[in-house]
């Protein structure tokens, strides 16, 4: 089980726990785990090391039971989510399971919430606390994929921008695949249709049904006469690059969004580090009372 933590000066310790039902029930006996109908046992999953390959991660993802999520504030359980997706989870308390995954939970603007960033394999990449314009990053647990990602982004300013951009590019990947693979798929479908035998369907004669048509009155409405304006519009030719952009907006718009997300991630990281330094300085001033000379 992964436990992401943040020491907030006002809300206290905020934790986000991510794991399987069997792991949660060891820590919380009242955890509403799903049990097998025949054996009554709680299914446990397999956690892979951070250096595991994509093939092994995909196979484990298919075989594992659902990954759960729990949000705790100041030692009090606030939210329990059935599945892990990218999205925002409000800090407000709600008893029982959230019926929707984390990605579908909407936090009100300005209200305190936790933003979850997860990948396809239900692995947490990053967790952020948000309240108004305040953005503070959680500390990833040691040995997690999130810690590896944070360490690589800390060591390389290029990866600090690249990783969020790759996440944004995933949104346009399907559109790029359609443009590249679309002609090939259409040729394949046409070839398969040529292999099918030609069927001659019988020519069915449908019965002719005569329905009564009402005789509506002929109403003549006045038609206004508009002046005939002849405006000499210039004959403009759209450049080829502009025509391409207008035709493939579903591709380049996500690309632009990906670039913006990359620079926003750098800005949010700087804001997070500045906010943590401000918290530390405030805490030091509180612990060390000022000594005034007499």
Produce a short descriptive summary.
It is built from seven helices and nine strands, in the order E-E-H-H-E-E-E-E-E-E-E-H-H-H-H-H. The protein has 294 residues and is α+β, with helices and mostly antiparallel strands. The strands form two sheets. A five-stranded mixed sheet has the order 1-2-3-4-6, covered by helices on one side.
Would you write up a description of this structure?
The chain has 294 residues and is of the alpha+beta class. The chain folds into 2 domains: 2-139, no CATH class; 156-189 and 238-281, no CATH class. The chain has helices spanning 21-27, 54-63, 145-155, 157-169, 173-195, 240-247, 249-287; strands at 2-8, 12-19, 68-73, 76-81, 87-90, 97-98, 113-118, 124-131, 134-137. Strands 1-2-3-4-6 form a 5-stranded mixed β-sheet, with helices on one face. Strands 5-7-8-9 form a 4-stranded antiparallel β-sheet. Strand 1 and strand 2 (12-19) form a beta hairpin. Helix 3 crosses helix 4 (157-169). The two termini are 56 Å apart. The model has no long low-confidence stretch (mean pLDDT 81).
Radius of gyration: 30 Å
Envelope shape: extended
Strand content: 15-25%
Number of domains: 2
- Order of helices and strands, N to C? EEHHEEEEEEEHHHHH
C-alpha end-to-end distance: 56 Å
Q: Helix/strand/pairing class, anyone?
A: alpha+beta
Strand order of the largest sheet: 1-2-3-4-6
Number of helices: 7
- Which parts are unreliable, with pLDDT below 50 for 5 consecutive residues or more? none
The percent of residues in helical segments reads 25-40%
The tally of beta strands, per DSSP, is: 9
Global mean pLDDT: 81
For the largest beta-sheet, the strand count, sense and barrel status come to:
5 strands, mixed
């Amino acid at each position: 089980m992964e436990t992401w933590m943040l020491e907030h000066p006002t809300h206290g310790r905020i934790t986000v726990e991510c794991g399987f039902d069997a792991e949660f029930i060891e820590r919380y006996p009242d955890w509403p785990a799903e049990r097998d109908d025949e054996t009554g046992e709680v299914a446990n999953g397999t956690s892979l090391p951070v250096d595991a390959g994509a093939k092994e991660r995909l196979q484990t993802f298919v075989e594992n039971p659902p990954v759960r999520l729990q949000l705790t504030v100041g030692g009090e359980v606030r939210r329990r989510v059935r599945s892990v997706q990218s999205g925002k989870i409000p800090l407000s308390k709600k008893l029982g399971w959230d019926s929707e995954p984390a990605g579908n939970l909407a936090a009100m603007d300005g209200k305190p919430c936790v933003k979850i960033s997860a990948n396809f394999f239900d692995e947490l990449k990053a967790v952020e606390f948000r309240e108004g314009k305040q953005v503070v990053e959680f500390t990833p647990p040691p040995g997690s994929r999130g810690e590896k990602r944070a360490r690589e982004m800390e060591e390389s300013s290029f990866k600090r921008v690249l990783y969020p951009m790759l996440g944004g590019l995933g949104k346009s990947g399907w559109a790029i695949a359609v443009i590249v693979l679309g002609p090939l798929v259409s040729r394949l479908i046409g070839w398969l249709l040529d292999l099918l035998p030609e069927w001659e369907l019988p020519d069915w004669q449908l019965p002719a049904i005569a329905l009564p048509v009402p005789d509506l009155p002929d109403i003549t409405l006045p038609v206004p006469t508009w002046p005939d304006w002849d405006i000499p519009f210039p004959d403009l030719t759209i450049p080829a690059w502009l025509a391409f952009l207008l035709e493939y907006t579903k591709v380049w718009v996500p690309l632009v969004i990906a670039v913006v997300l990359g620079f926003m991630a750098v800005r949010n990281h700087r804001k997070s580090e500045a906010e943590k330094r401000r918290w530390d300085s405030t805490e030091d001033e509180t612990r060390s009372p000022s000594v005034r000379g007499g």
